[in-house]
Write a structure and sequence with these properties.
flat; mainly alpha; 4% strand
Length: 93
């Protein structure tokens, strides 16, 4: 596990001490997750939902019905700041 590469992808600066600290931790996480590959899931049907707190299955399928969209005026009415019909956001550079 290349901790420096992961940190670079996350735009994080880490010290040599942090690399030494995180390398075994990340290796343990990967090893733990790889245990899922050892499970026999051949006879398990994929779920299309989840479970409630009581353990009952839920279903998330619903009919895909197109709905109306917000107009420009309505969308901007909830924005903290709008300029010339557009959302105004802070400059990020």
């Amino acid at each position: 596990m290349d901790v420096r590469h992961v940190a670079k992808l996350a735009h994080l600066e880490i010290s040599d001490a942090e690399v030494d600290l995180y390398t075994p931790q990340m290796a343990n996480i990967v090893k733990y997750v790889e245990q899922l590959n050892e499970l026999d899931i051949e006879d398990i049907e994929p779920m299309l939902g989840g479970l409630t707190a009581e353990g009952e299955q839920t279903f998330t399928l619903r009919e895909d019905i197109p709905g109306g969209s917000l107009g420009q005026t309505e969308a901007l009415s909830q924005a903290p700041s709008g300029v010339a019909g557009h959302f105004q956001v802070p400059k990020v550079l």
